Amino acid sequence: MKKKYVLIILTGITIILSNIPPLSYIFDYALDEKHYRYSNDSGNFVLPDRSGNNITGIKESFKEYVKSNKVQEADTVLYRTFWKNPIAFWRWHTYLNIKDDRYKLPYKKS
Prior knowledge:
3-stranded antiparallel sheet; about 40% helix
């Protein structure tokens, strides 16, 4: 019985610490380096975000892509190709952040 409580407490501490900076940055870098990807509808524009925090730069790159290429109307929407995985506890701080623009983009399965 005591071992069960110790395991629950250690799990809770791990979840909390993995979502508090600077440890959250370490978890993001170690586990999610290639997780954050963005694409248009046809898949002609695909861009990874290594840090996961550069959504402004991704949007600017996509605007430049749309301007410089003759793009059909359906391809002018930027999608995120990653979903919210509740098992990935080290990402919970981004899921709960209502100001996080990553999850305001529509999801499209890649």
